[in-house]
């Protein structure tokens, strides 16, 4: 399903012209439903390199000025409801009208992100004319000329921010695409042994000497859950440096590279050593790169006091890795294979959460309970008014919260929202991004 973008605004601002410009020369009208939506046009378009479904809500030309606000609302409500993004068009030449303002007021209260488009800005004074649009409180206006094609690059860039990323679309299109997995961890944690275990054959050499040189080619296999997996190679797995110090450095650099490539990272922790600074650093790196993480608590066979080991790990995670709260931990022995069968299901689950999209309706029901439970704080004596939330992206889950001076929201309230989101939607161990957009 392509994301849906609605073009709305009062008559004659240039909605149809913009629609045609975005769709291109060959306008493919795929929907021309008679009745209420008689004049609504719908077409597939490429915007910012993505396929989108574009809606044009023209057809209000007959409305009298008195009824315009109401009429527009009726016709636009349906479009807004089914859209992931709205392009709100104004005519920068004629200036803002009461109808524009009424429309903007209404739009600000709708649970959908809005890109403000100031049309008809070709010519010398065009950019200047767009300035007035700031008054609408819908963020920066994008100055364009639908007729001349000016400003389209900027418009595409503005829209791109709200579209799900390409990887996400690809993975939806191709369910059989392999999951990109990184296995990270300090030298000797048991990464190679674990990989061999996952592969079910001795494809790599393992040994106790950290100086051993190993080579491997790209590995792809079908895991026990039946899904394809591709290992994003870590130099730490592929090749070991001669000097131990260099190895430490190199494996960090290799881990960073692997983390950029992967979707899920297995952090292999030597249970005999526990989660030390090095492991925490890797976990934080994974979080910063926005990856889902699963901890393989390895060498479980050699642990004497399992209860104490587990407790110690949990303490460390609680105090030092709050940004990945609820991170799954799978105790196992890569060597004996015990517990290893639980690893890939945990990876698949983390992957699913990482990919999960929450609909705007469901998200805002949660958001309202959060606001009701804890009113937003006062900043400099004024209350921050948060209006609604959207989730434009997954991989990692990204929530955008809109509201008056939202960008000034204090850190503890941001954390409250992120943790609440994690809890409500079961996003354990997944990085969560929160963006705040002031709508003034
Ligand atoms: P709609 O009613 O919002 O769909 O607006 P239209 O696309 O039908 O355009 C209304 C009028 O504005 C038409 O006469 C267009 O030619 C004109 N128009 C549209 N875009 C531009 C533009 O970028 N610059 C100028 N100068 N006129 C434009
Ligand atoms: P890497 O450097 O992270 O790839 O670690 P290796 O896979 O080479 O393992 C390092 C050492 O730990 C080897 O001597 C392995 O035999 C040992 N090892 C790996 N997994 C386990 C395990 O589950 N239990 C025990 N007791 N030893 C393990």
From TrEMBL:
GO terms for molecular function: GTP binding. SMART domains: AAA. Transmembrane segments: none annotated. SUPFAM superfamilies: P-loop containing nucleoside triphosphate hydrolases. GTP 1 binds at residues 9-16, 56-60, 119-122. Associates with the 50S ribosomal subunit. Belongs to the TRAFAC class TrmE-Era-EngA-EngB-Septin-like GTPase superfamily. EngA (Der) GTPase family. This is GTPase Der.
């Amino acid at each position: 399903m392509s994301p849906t973008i609605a073009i709305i605004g009062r008559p004659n601002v240039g909605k149809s012209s913009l629609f045609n410009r975005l769709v291109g020369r060959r306008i493919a009208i795929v929907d021309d439903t008679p009745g209420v939506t008689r004049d609504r046009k719908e077409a597939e378009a490429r915007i910012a390199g993505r396929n989108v479904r574009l809606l044009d809500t023209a057809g209000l030309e007959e409305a009298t000025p008195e009824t315009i606000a109401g009429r527009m609302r009726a016709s636009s409500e349906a479009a807004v409801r089914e859209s992931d993004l709205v392009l709100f068009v104004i005519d920068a030449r004629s200036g803002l009208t009461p109808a524009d303002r009424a429309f903007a007021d209404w739009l600000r209260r709708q649970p959908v992100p809005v890109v403000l488009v100031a049309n008809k800005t070709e010519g010398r004074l065009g950019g200047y004319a767009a300035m007035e649009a700031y008054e609408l409180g819908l963020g920066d206006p994008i100055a364009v000329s639908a007729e001349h094609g000016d400003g389209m690059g900027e418009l595409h860039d503005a829209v791109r921010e709200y579209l799900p990323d390409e990887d996400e679309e690809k993975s939806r299109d191709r369910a059989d695409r392999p999951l990109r997995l990184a296995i990270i961890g300090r030298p000797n944690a048991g990464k190679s042994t674990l990989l061999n275990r996952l592969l079910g054959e001795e494809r790599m050499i393992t040994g106790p000497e950290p100086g051993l040189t190993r080579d491997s080619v790209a590995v792809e296999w079908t895991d026990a859950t039946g899904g394809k997996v591709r290992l994003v190679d870590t130099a730490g797995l592929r090749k070991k440096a001669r000097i131990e110090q260099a190895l430490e450095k190199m494996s960090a650099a290799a881990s960073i590279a692997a983390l950029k490539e992967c979707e899920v990272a297995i952090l292999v922790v030597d249970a005999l050593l526990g989660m030390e600074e090095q492991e925490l650093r890797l976990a934080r790196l994974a979080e910063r790169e926005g990856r889902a993480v699963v901890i393989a608590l390895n060498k479980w066979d050699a642990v004497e006091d399992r209860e104490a080991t587990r407790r110690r790990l949990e303490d460390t995670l609680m105090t030092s890795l709050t940004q990945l709260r609820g991170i799954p931990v799978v105790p196992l022995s890569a060597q004996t294979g015990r517990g290893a069968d639980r690893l890939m299901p945990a990876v698949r689950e983390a992957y699913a959460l990482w990919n999960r999209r929450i609909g705007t309706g469901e998200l805002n029901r949660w958001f309202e309970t959060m606001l009701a439970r804890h009113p937003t704080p006062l900043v400099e004596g004024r209350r921050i008014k948060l209006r609604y939330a959207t989730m434009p992206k997954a991989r990692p889950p990204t929530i955008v919260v809109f509201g008056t001076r939202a960008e000034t929201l204090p850190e503890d309230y941001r954390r409250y929202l992120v943790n609440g989101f994690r809890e409500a939607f079961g996003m354990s161990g997944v990085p969560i991004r929160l963006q705040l957009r002031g709508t003034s």
